[in-house]
Specification:
Elements: E1 5-10, H1 17-30, E2 35-39, H2 40-46, H3 64-86, E3 91-95, H4 101-110, E4 116-122, H5 126-137, H6 147-164, E5 173-178, E6 183-189, H7 196-204, E7 208-215, H8 220-224, H9 235-247, E8 255-258, H10 262-273, E9 279-282, H11 299-305, H12 307-313, H13 328-345, E10 351-356, H14 358-366, E11 385-392, E12 395-402
Parallel strand pairs: 1-3, 1-4, 2-3, 4-5, 7-10, 8-9, 8-10
Antiparallel strand pairs: 5-6, 7-11, 11-12
Helix pairs in contact: 1-7, 5-6, 9-10, 11-12, 13-14
The structure holds 6-O-phosphono-beta-D-fructofuranose.
């Protein structure tokens, strides 16, 4: 046995704490460690109180009843974590905002004989934070509110937390993490902590349980071999979207990430409709390669009317940049940024779906593969199959699955 450890998450709401806690929990579990997450928010939602625990006022520092209840929730989770660790548990993760020194001191005092590691999550990326707030506003606990009111209420809740927020400073073992970039910004470790090297690895490594990478269904432009544009799905494309919906009906997909283009949204819609609940998040980072002056043309027309484009692109497709447009090489940064958003927003759920385009999906898949750049623009990206990608320290699987077949092959989805 390696020893026991208490990991204490710290940070304002929507900064990626629970995602990080789940990532740590899941990876340690795969290593054979007996780990459990104690989440205050989940307990609050489960507790049957007379209070409206969703309202922003519940979180006001001036609301003594709210404060009491939140401290009570924290105490229950601490006691459960103590119990878990006194028995066979090895790592307890206390997942809550824990924004005050006083709250952290109390957690520390509750485990006098065990080491604690405080993990503070920051996210300096405004856009990702905004997208996360949007996602949160759509959650079940806000279902009774309109999107705008939910967002307003959540922002107010954050402001209350901000007003009492004391970042980590006196705690003996503390790590400051950028949860969007998945990197460690600062670490101060005084004690010898069990699992510490592993924890560092987990924080900075990307683990993909199930990424379903789908290309949109057939479009009018596809039929004519035209590139770019924003055309609609054909009847066949709509059938493909419906077949995907049927195929994934028994696989839980909480969020579908798409581009801003109609064809990916039209493909995602029927899939989302078969799920409960499922939101569609359109990311501009996943828009298809912009072909500049060639947008809307067929490959044949380009060869005839702009032979210099065809001639230059042919031998150097990855590096070639369309006049007034993009190339694979110039898409790299934005697509990687889109992926960071996906992992930040997906709350470390085991299933992620992206509905993208031919070139974008090639870039996405290549970020997990070690392929020569000249091979990337030729990665096979059909419309009647999707890629099922699984990556963890023990396996790397890229499987092309026809979606008329039954999902669940291999189990564990
Ligand atoms: O034809 C569909 C499409 O998604 C176009 O919009 C895009 O320009 C093209 O595929 C990308 O593929 P390639 O780089 O092979 O031309």
């Amino acid at each position: 046995m390696k020893g026991k450890l208490v990991i204490v998450m710290v940070g304002l709401p929507a900064r990626g704490k629970s995602t990080m806690a789940r990532k740590l929990g899941r990876a340690l579990e795969l290593d054979g460690v007996r780990v459990r997450i104690f989440n205050n928010g989940e307990l609050r939602r489960k507790l049957d109180t007379n209070e409206n625990t969703t309202s922003s006022e519940f979180f006001s520092p001036a609301n003594t009843r709210g404060q009491e209840l939140r401290e009570q929730i924290s105490r229950i989770n601490i006691e459960e974590a103590q119990c878990f660790l006194q028995n066979s548990g090895e790592v307890a993760i206390i997942d809550a905002s824990n924004v005050t020194r006083e709250r952290r001191r109390r957690i520390d005092a509750a485990f006098p004989d065990l080491p604690l590691c405080f993990v503070e999550c920051l996210n300096a990326d405004e856009e990702a934070l905004e997208a996360n707030l949007e996602r949160k506003a759509g959650l079940k606990e806000f279902r009774h509110l309109t999107r705008e009111t939910a967002l307003e209420s959540f922002l107010k809740r954050i402001a209350y937390y901000e007003s009492i927020y004391e970042p980590l400073d006196v705690e003996a073992n503390r790590i400051l993490v950028d949860s969007f970039e998945s990197c460690i910004l600062l670490e101060q470790i005084t004690d010898v902590l069990p699992y510490y090297d592993r924890i560092r690895d987990i924080i900075t490594t990307r683990v993909v349980r199930n990424l379903f990478l789908v290309r949109h269904g057939e479009t009018l432009y596809n039929l004519e071999d035209r590139i770019g544009g924003d055309s609609n799905l054909t009847d066949k494309g709509r059938d493909q979207a419906n077949a995907l919906a049927e195929h994934f009906a028994t696989v839980r997909i909480p969020i579908i990430f798409t581009s801003n283009y109609t064809r990916t949204l039209q493909t995602a819609k029927p899939i989302a409709e078969r799920q409960d609940p499922c939101s569609i998040i359109a990311l501009p980072e996943f828009n298809e390669i912009h072909a500049g002056i060639c947008e809307g043309m067929t490959y044949q027309e380009i060869r005839q009317r702009m032979p210099y484009v065809a001639k230059a692109r042919g031998p150097n497709k990855y590096r070639y940049v369309y006049p007034e447009g993009e190339g694979y090489t110039t898409m790299e940064d934005r697509v990687h940024r889109g992926l960071k958003k996906v992992f930040f927003l997906n709350n470390y759920d085991e299933n992620i779906m992206i509905v993208g385009h031919r070139a974008v999906n090639r870039m996405i898949i290549s970020s997990f593969l070690s392929r020569q750049e000249e091979e990337i623009p030729y990665i096979y990206m059909p419309q009647d199959r999707y890629y099922h990608i699984q990556i963890d320290p023990h396996k790397r699987i890229f499987e092309l699955v026809p979606y008329k077949s039954t999902p669940g092959v291999g189990g564990g989805w």
